[in-house]
Design goal:
Distance between the termini: 57 Å
Shape: globular
Number of domains: 1
Radius of gyration: 20 Å
Oligomer: single chain
Largest sheet: none
Helix content: over 70%
Order of helices and strands: HHHHHHHH
Number of strands: 0
Length: about 200
Amino acid sequence: MKAKVEECIRAIRAHPRYKTLRNLTILFLYVVVGCAVYGELEGWNIATTLSFIVVTVTTVGYGYHTPGDDNSRLFTIFYIIFGLCFVFAMVMGFLQNQISLLSNALAKNLMQTSAEKIGADYQKNRRMVIYNLIAIALTVLFGGVVLMYMEDWSFIQGVYFALCTSSVGVYVWYVMCMCLICKDMYMVYNNITLS
């Protein structure tokens, strides 16, 4: 029985539309959880909640609707982070596939580059992404601490404000795209521009 279940799971994962269906399911659950939590914590209707979710996760941040207390803000902080990571993972999967196709074509036709060199470049770019994400997190946390003391807010209010108003989402998209394209002096330049 266990072998049949494992075989069925492998067959499902091998289907070409598996990743698309999985991502759409995760997106649907993400929105449902957001609607349920904000409906309960803030008393918002579905239209207001959907508007808030889209505006917040895309980091547009119009400010029409904002969480009213620290519990809602704390949930929103993690909700934004998860949302950005999810969207980033979907886009990165697509970009990696496209870059892999391009790298394979270049390796076969132009340079005969070794697989080890391509793997080393990938690992170097991965480290740059991780370093930049750490820099972003530290910047948001530092901004939260500064706002906590300067505005006499709670730490959660400060981090929420720093996260929602710093265009972190735009910066994250920029970081991920540029890490895949440019390699030299990228991290230093971007950390200076963020500061």
